[in-house]
Amino acid sequence: MNCAGVPVPMNNLDRNLRFGWWSLLIFLSLGGGLEILHGFKIGWYVDVGNDMRRLMFTLAHAHGTALALVNIAAGLTARNIKGFPPRPSVSLSLIWAGILLPVGFFLGGIVTYSGDPGLGIWLVPVAAILLFYSVLRIALDLSRPASEQQSKSSHVRQDR
Questions:
Q1: Strand partners, 116
Q2: Dihedral-angle region of residue 67 (phi above 0 means left; psi in -120 to 50 means alpha; beta otherwise)
């Protein structure tokens, strides 16, 4: 809401910033939970036969934390670069990559099959494609000359 109490629609960069900070909190907490499981030597997590589970949970924590930081960086980049309007498809793809990649690793570790990850691991390639698209689109948009970015952003504003 603005000063007059009128609701203001959330733009793409705010969406990525909010998602990034909340997911950073979640995945750092997950890391703390993994440390607790390891510290108390919970067999479901640390037994020799559960190497795959431990690896999948560690990958979920690491990728979730890293993608939270990428979302924060994307939001701050969009906020600080003039003439760089964040595309809705890029914003949403980056958020979905930040959800699907760690969730795929986590679900892959809940139920393992003789040292292989569970079916949740199939979310990881989908998330990787979304992440690749987002990063490529941001890199291409930032590589454009400043004059081209300014004219494109004015066309985007006029269309809204």
A1: 113
A2: alpha
CA–CA gap between residue 53 and residue 62 (Å, rounded): 14
* Contact (CB, 8 A) for 105 and 122: no
For residue 12 the two structure tokens come to 């793409």
User: Shortest CA distance to 61 belongs to which of 23, 22, 95, 90?
Assistant: 23
Q: pLDDT (tens digit, 9 = 90+) per residue, 49-98?
A: 999 999 999 999 999 999 999 999 999 998 898 878 778 999 999 999 99
48 within some domain: yes
Q: How confident is the model at residue 19 (pLDDT cuts 50, 70, 90)?
A: very high
Quote the domain boundaries for residue 122.
Answer: 12-143
What is the domain count for the chain?
Answer: 1
Q: Is residue 28 part of a domain?
A: yes
Q: Is 148 helix (H, G, I), strand (E, B) or coil?
A: helix
**Averaged confidence pLDDT in the chain:** 89
What pTM did the predictor assign? 0.85
